[in-house]
Amino acid sequence: MKRLLLTLLFVFLVLITNAEKQQAVQTVYICTGPKAVVYHRTAKCRGLNNCSGKIKKVSLAEIKKTRRACKICYK
Fold it and tell me: pTM for this structure?
């Protein structure tokens, strides 16, 4: 019984750690133009075709507060 509980605890901790790592390193792409308000999953999203600035790679955690997800690549 103790072995089962320890195994479940270990698996739970590993899953939590992996989820935190994935969220921390998840990157998205933004247009640095003055009218840009969305973030994109890939740099090749067609929503970035008319970008008047540069395409920049940023972390999702830092940009999610100020921009919304692209309706094309986040369907």
Answer: 0.66
